[in-house]
Structure formats: C-alpha cells, structure tokens
C-alpha cells in the first residue's frame, strides 16, 4: 500500500494545502454522545474551511435503529447552523444499523460504502472511526477484516482505523488489544487518538523548544531544578460515576494525557520534525522514566478521593455520594506523584505530577522551575518577594506561555520582586485555533500520524503506570481524602515539601 506523504503538520497550519481527499468517513458508534458533541461539529468545521473534497461522505454505524433520514436528522441536530456545504454533506451520508458481533452488519456496511463511493465518485479512501466503548474495539476490527474492509480496494487508496482511549486497562490488556488490532490492521493503519495532542499549546511545546535558541540550551538538569505537571478539573464526575468507578484518575488522566505531555517535555531534539522522528523521541523519553518499585509507590505516590465541600460558590457532594458510585468506593479522584528520569539531560531532576477532580479551577499546565541563583547580592529585605525563575506552559484554558523573572520595583529603594512576561495565544495571533478533534480528524484522513500514539508508546506508558496499579490493588497505598474546592490532600503537599519545594499556586 503506497501513500503520498502529507505535508509536515508542524511547519504548516491547517489550510487548503492539507485537504481531505475524496473518500468516506465511517463512524462506528454514530448514534453516541461523542459523535454528536465532537466528531460531527469537527467535520462541519472542516467542511466550512473547505478542507473536505466535494466527493466526501459520512457513513454511520451503530446498534441504534435509524434510517438514513434519521441519521441525517441526527447530523443536522448536532450542527443546526451548518452552511450549504454541510447541508450537501448531510444529504449524501448513509447509516447502517446492526450489532458489532454480527458479521452481517459489516457485510451491509461494505455494500453501503460501495454504493456511496459510486454515488459521490470516491475512489476508495476509507477512514473508520471507532467512537464506541473500548470493549468492542476487537470485534469491530475483526468484523471489518472479515468483510474485507481492512484493506484498500486499489493501490493508490488508503484505509485507516482510528480508536479512542483508553488503550487497555493495564499493561496486559493493552498488549492483548494491540495483538487483536494487528490481526486485521497494520500498525501504519492504526491511529490512536488522544485529544490532548490536538491542543495547540501541547504542540507548541515542540515549537518553544526547538525553534528558539534561548530555551533549548536551558532545558536540562544544569538549569532546571524540577518540573511540575498539573491537570486540574473543577468539576466532579457529574453523570459518569459508573465509568469513573472502573477507571479512576490514574487510568483516565495519568496513563494517557499526562504521559503524552511528559514525553513532549522530556524528549530529546528529533533528527527531523516529522512523524517518525517525533514519535521515536517520545518513546525514548518514556523509556528513560524510572519504573516505580513498590517501595517508591508507597513513598512517592498519593491517591485521594474528594469529600463534600464547596465548588464555584456551591455546596457539592462527596464522590461516594455521586450517582452510580459505591458508598464504599476506593476509586481515586486525585493522584500526586514524583517521578525521576534516568538519562543525561534529566538525571536528578524530580518531576512532580498532580491531577484531580473538584479542585479550585480547571487548569492544565507544565511548569519548569529553574535553580535559584548561586549567590543573591541583594539583602533579604530587598528580595523577600523574589522566587526562582519559572517557565510555564499553559495548555488550558488560557492557552499561552509565561516566564517569571526578577525585576526592580520602581521607586527610590532597590527592591526586587517577581514579574511575569506573559504570552496568550488568543491575543498574540488574533485567531481561534482549530478545536482538537478538528485537527486530529484532518490528520487521520490525510494520513499524518504525527499527533497519534504509536503502539510502543502505549506499551511504555503502561509500564510506568502498571506498578502503581498493582501496589494499589494490594492496598499498599492508603486512600486519602480532600475537601472539594481545595488543591488536594495534605499528603500531596508533604510529598513535595519533604524535598524543600512546594506546589505552584496558579
């Protein structure tokens, strides 16, 4: 199977040079919430930007009984203000009802795809997006393979499979899923999507480091004292208590989102800014992270669950009082940990990670705190408000980069305190970045894997997280509590304070 390499995504923005070729997007699980909230609005935006070929259609597949017209109405309801191009796309889209374990579902799907391609004049480019629960990934992949839909019909067309996280529940299940998918699809065809990698600020970690001579020389143990990664949510589990009981913060956030951000932060400069170069270095970075021993888990990992408290001025219940949550639940809604990296660049630099629900604000950021100056010539009184320099990458919600440094306070006295040099993406570029799913769907359909997760990267992330899960299952790490609306349990503060450091206050 041969493909023309797409333009480099890191040297070009989303524009007309990266148009989706004639083809069909098949959404498996098309009647679900993800399709309506994220996928269809993203496709409509691509259509509005004229980044879809005219010969393009969507085929929905799900267990829900719907006619073609019913699915078209679902598309219209998801994007009620779509333009004329969206209306045309809706009209030529189709739907297949069926169970994923029934081979006839995929036989019918193959027939409909062939009919659609003949109708719109597409040549056989097909992208299958699995917007389903992970439990059916394997049977859907097998069904596509049995119907002959896993291979392109001609040498100059492509077939791709996009799957959503989580990629397994632990290392063993992730490897089993990998084996199952590879029964019918080559690794080059599989696009594992993590919407965090579609965020502009996550991608800008690469630009900040490798496009600026002032930062990369400082991005190492000689200058950086420690790294903090925070993924905070002000919301609770809302109506997802049943799901969260099976996941928890470690699986839901740390194994995927945090590990992706961590690998981009720690990676070495790639030989080339392309898919293979970047993904090779991300994997190498994760391989350098020291795998936690049971003793390290007990000492360096905190797990906690939110109690009742106040959030955004309202009283909120404890996690165990949420719908579909066990009153004796041991599921963590908060994780804090210290990791170390065993390589030349980061040896001796601790990496502190925290994530949780019902924290004071929604925030995702990476903060690199530099060493203190070796000798401070100013007196304590003149510099009492001065802290070490820090470079902060805000991933959400106020995307941007801030640099903290010392400056003289105006006046007769020589007082020095912190100031911020702050760059906001919204004001710097005067345009809204594409939504994460819009960017990632475009990349998948043009065949650009740079922002997708490779098999060995998934495996290495699980190798870091798996020992923590095993220690927790043995109850080696007690479950702490924290009041909703606070920054977490006291144990998390002690974790970092024992090293003479403290968590940032955003």
Short structural summary:
The protein has 506 residues and is of the alpha/beta class.
What does this structure look like?
With 506 residues, this protein is an alpha/beta fold. The protein folds into two domains: 23-164, NAD(P)-binding Rossmann-like Domain (Rossmann fold, 3-Layer(aba) Sandwich); 198-497, Dihydrodipicolinate Reductase, domain 2. Helices cover 35% and strands 21% of the residues. It has 14 helices and 17 strands. It has helices at residues 33-48, 68-78, 84-91, 103-120, 137-146, 171-182, 200-210, 241-266, 275-287, 294-300, 425-429, 436-446, 455-473, 490-497; strands at residues 23-28, 56-62, 94-97, 125-130, 159-164, 190-193, 224-232, 301-307, 309-311, 314-316, 334-339, 351-356, 363-370, 390-396, 400-408, 416-424, 479-483. The strands form three sheets. It has a nine-stranded mixed sheet with strand order 16-15-14-13-7-12-11-8-17, sandwiched between helices. It has a six-stranded parallel sheet with strand order 3-2-1-4-5-6, sandwiched between helices. Helix 8 crosses helix 13. The radius of gyration is 24 Å and the shape is globular. The N and C termini lie far apart (49 Å).
């Amino acid at each position: 199977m041969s493909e023309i390499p797409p333009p480099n995504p890191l040297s070009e923005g989303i524009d007309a040079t990266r148009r989706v070729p004639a083809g069909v997007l098949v959404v498996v699980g098309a009647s679900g919430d993800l399709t309506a909230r994220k996928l269809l609005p993203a496709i409509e935006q691509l259509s509005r930007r004229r980044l879809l070929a005219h010969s393009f259609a969507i085929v929905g597949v799900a267990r829900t009984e719907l006619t073609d017209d019913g699915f078209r109405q679902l598309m219209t309801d998801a994007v009620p203000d779509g333009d004329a191009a969206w209306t045309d796309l809706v009209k030529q889209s189709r739907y297949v009802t069926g169970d994923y374990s029934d081979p006839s579902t995929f036989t019918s799907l193959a027939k409909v795809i062939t009919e659609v391609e003949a109708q719109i004049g597409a040549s056989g480019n097909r992208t299958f997006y699995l917007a389903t629960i992970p439990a059916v990934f394997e049977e859907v992949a097998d069904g596509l393979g049995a119907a002959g839909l896993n291979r392109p019909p001609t040498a100059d067309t492509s077939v791709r499979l996009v799957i959503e996280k989580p990629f397994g529940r632990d290392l063993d299940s992730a490897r089993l899923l990998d084996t199952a998918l590879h029964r019918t699809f080559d690794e080059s065809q599989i696009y594992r999507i993590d919407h965090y990698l579609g965020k502009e600020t996550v991608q800008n970690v690469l630009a900040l480091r490798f496009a600026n001579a002032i930062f990369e020389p400082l991005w190492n143990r000689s200058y950086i004292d420690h790294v903090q990664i925070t993924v905070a949510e002000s919301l609770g589990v809302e109506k997802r208590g049943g799901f969260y009981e099976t996941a928890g913060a470690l699986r839901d956030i740390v194994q995927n989102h945090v590990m992706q951000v961590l690998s981009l932060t720690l990676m070495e400069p790639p030989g080339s800014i392309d898919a293979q170069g970047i993904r090779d270095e991300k994997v190498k970075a994760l391989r350098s992270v020291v795998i936690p021993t049971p003793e390290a888990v007990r000492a360096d990992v905190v797990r906690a669950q939110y109690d009742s408290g106040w959030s955004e001025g309202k009283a909120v219940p404890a996690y165990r009082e949420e719908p579909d949550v066990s009153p004796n639940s041991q599921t963590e809604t908060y994780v804090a940990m210290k990791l170390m990296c065993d390589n030349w660049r980061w040896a001796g630099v601790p990496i502190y990670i925290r994530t949780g629900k019902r924290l004071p604000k929604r925030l995702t950021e990476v903060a690199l705190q530099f060493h203190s100056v070796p000798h401070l010539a100013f007196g304590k009184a003149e510099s009492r408000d001065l802290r070490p320099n820090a470079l902060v990458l805000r991933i959400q919600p106020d995307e941007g980069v801030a640099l903290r440094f010392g400056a003289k306070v105006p006046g007769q006295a020589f007082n020095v305190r912190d100031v911020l040099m702050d760059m906001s993406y919204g004001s710097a570029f005067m345009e809204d970045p594409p939504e994460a799913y819009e960017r990632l769907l475009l990349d998948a359909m043009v065949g650009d894997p740079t922002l997708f997760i490779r098999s060995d990267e998934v495996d290495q992330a699980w190798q870091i997280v798996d020992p923590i899960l095993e220690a927790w299952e043995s109850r080696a790490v007690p479950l702490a509590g924290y009041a909703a609306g606070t920054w977490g349990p006291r144990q998390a503060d002690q974790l970092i304070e024992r090293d003479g450091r403290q968590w940032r206050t955003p």
